[in-house]
Each structure stands twice: as structure tokens, then as C-alpha cells.
Amino acid sequence: MEHYVPLIREFAARDELFHDAVARKLGLHPTDEKVLRLLGQQTVSAGDLADYMGLTGAAVTAMVDRLETLGYVTRERDGADRRRVKIRAVPAKLASINRIYRGLHAAMDAMLADYNEAEFKTVVDYLTRTTKVLAEQTRKLGDGN
Amino acid sequence: MEHYVPLIREFAARDELFHDAVARKLGLHPTDEKVLRLLGQQTVSAGDLADYMGLTGAAVTAMVDRLETLGYVTRERDGADRRRVKIRAVPAKLASINRIYRGLHAAMDAMLADYNEAEFKTVVDYLTRTTKVLAEQTRKLGDGN
DNA sequence: TTAATTAGTTAGATGATCTAACTAATTGGT
DNA sequence: ACCAATTAGTTAGATCATCTAACTAATTAA
Question: What are phi and psi of A88, to 5 degrees?
């Protein structure tokens, strides 16, 4: 039980290094690649991006400018609330990114195949609940400012 | 099985946001907090830090300078290989960081208590193997330049 | 209909990281 | 043993992602 903490630290660090490597291969900043990962098909508002990334609004504007210039995303005004800007990924560009992820997905699928249904359920449950705990604890840290 | 990928993405993003919040509370750069997390008791060489963090040697020098000035770490020359510099965390400073982590650790312990031994073993196995897969895939991405 | 709030952008400043060049220590081939 | 090549870390200068503060425009509430 004590060797659990370094385990999750290593896990998170490796995940980050992997995504950094993907970003480098694409010639993108790690932040930009992270956003593109979030933008699957759905559109996301600039403000939601700021929350998700932990960035200021100005930083998001700069980031979307970069991605727009490179042709990765487009801006659309929200019809209902015209203050809002919705960011949409360009499908053709997303495809080129997904190609890079194929190796990881294949390896992960192969690994996950070793688990039976109950075990897989446990893993999903663990990830879901840990995510929730992290969100709560992050909020609590922010409170005391 | 299809909703697994967004799950791990959310997990990693939340983990990062949590650590960003910790760093902000300490008045440190996220990178610096990440290094301090790695430096438990053990000493780590500057080069190993560069690998672990995905930074250049110059960036590590600057980072260690920052942490040294603030009293978080000390530099020691390696006796065996005097080119090497070993970085050591200052225990008293580490304690103040651990205090911030208490809330998370308590919440995680409470959550993990819901799993029986077999389930916990599955979670540890999953984290261990996924970490290994990520390391392999990162290396493969780096190969093609 | 006017005041207050919210979403996003612009402008300018800061600073973490980068590249390239350098010092110093170690290793290996001859 | 010795010189060349490699490795570890640092220094100097440049770049650029992000920050703060001030601004525009749209929405909501009094």
C-alpha cells in the first residue's frame, strides 16, 4: 500500500512525457496538443478551454490563434450567446494526429485484453473515482487561495 | 471499452491541474513542484532530472538554481564521478509540501479502502503496466527523430 | 434603460525553456 | 601512458507561451 504513491506519480509523469513526444513530433507546443486531444468532435468554448487547461483567457486566445493559423481549429460565434466563441477541430488535421496515437492504442488494447470483465470494471471505477477525488481536492486547495 | 480513452485523458488532466494548484499555493512553478515530488529522500543527478522532466540540461540548471535559492534543494558533487551533480531535497522544506498533500492522501486512502485485496492488486497492476507501455511508446515516437 | 456581469481580445511585461558554445571530468583506442 | 572522443553540467543570449491589466462587446438584472 505504501508503494502506491510513487506508482501514480510515475504513471502521470510518463503520460505527460508521452504527450510531449507527440507534440514534438507534430511541431506543436504541448499545450496545443493537449487541447486538440480534448477537441474530439465536439466544440468547446474558449472559457471552458481556459478552465480545463488551467490557463487565463488571454493565454487561450493566443493558443487558439496559433492553432487557427496552422489550420488545426476554427472559431465560430455561438448563435445563442454571441459573446461566446466555440472552437472546433478540423477533422482532416485530427486524423493526422490520431495516426500518431495508433501505436499507443494498439499497445493499450493488447494490455487491457489480459483483464477479465470484472477487472476491467475495477480499473474504470478506479480511474473515475480518482478523477473525482482530484477535482474535489483541487477545488479545496484553490479555496484557501 | 470505447469510453476508456476519454477517461484516462480526464484522469491525467485532473492530476496535472491538481499539481498546478499545489505549485501555486507554494508560489512555485509547476515544473519545480514536480521535481520536488520526485525528490523524496533520494538524491537524483541533474541529468536524470532532465530525462525525467523532458527538459534540456540548461533548463535543469536554471530550475535547480531557483530551488536552491529558495532553500528547497542542495547541490552535491558526486564522489565517484565528479562531473555529476546530485540534487538533494531539504527535509524541512519537504515537510511543508507534504502538509499540502495531506488532504489528497486522506481522500485517496478513504477511496482505496473500498477495494478488496484482489481489486487493489488489479489497480496496481494496471498502473504499473500502463506506465511501462507509455515509456515504450514514448521511446518509439522519439526514434523517428 | 441603465448598471453590473460575463466572454473574449489586445497590449505589454515576465520568465521558463531553448540553442549553441564552453569547461571540466571520464573513457577508450592505439 | 596519452590523446581523442564522449559525457555532465553550466553560461550567455534569444524565443515565445503565459501573465496582468485594460478594453470591447454582449447579456442579464434592477
Answer: -130, 135
Nearest CB to A141 within list B22, B127, B136:
B22
Say whether pTM exceeds 0.85: yes
Q: How far apart are CA A40 and CA A94, in angstroms?
A: 8
In the predicted structure, residue B143 carries a pLDDT above the cut 70: no
Q: Over the stretch B104-128, which tens digit does the pLDDT of each residue have? A: 999 999 999 999 999 999 999 999 9
Distance, CA of B38 to CA of B25 (rounded, Å):
18
B31 Cβ nearer than 7 Å to chain C strand: yes
Task: Read off the DSSP letter of residue A85.
Answer: E
pLDDT of residue B3: 67
DSSP-derived secondary structure letter, B87: E
Residue A119 grid coordinates: 477487472
Q: Calculate Rg over the CA atoms of chain B.
A: 18
Give the distance, in angstroms, between residue A55 CA and nucleotide D21 C1': 16
| Closest C-alpha to A60, from A100, A97, A29 | A29
Residues of A in contact with B138 (CB under 8 A): 14, 17-18, 21
- Map grid coordinates 480511474 to a residue: A127
Instruction: Give the per-residue pLDDT at B120.
Output: 96
What is the pLDDT averaged over residues A70-88? 96
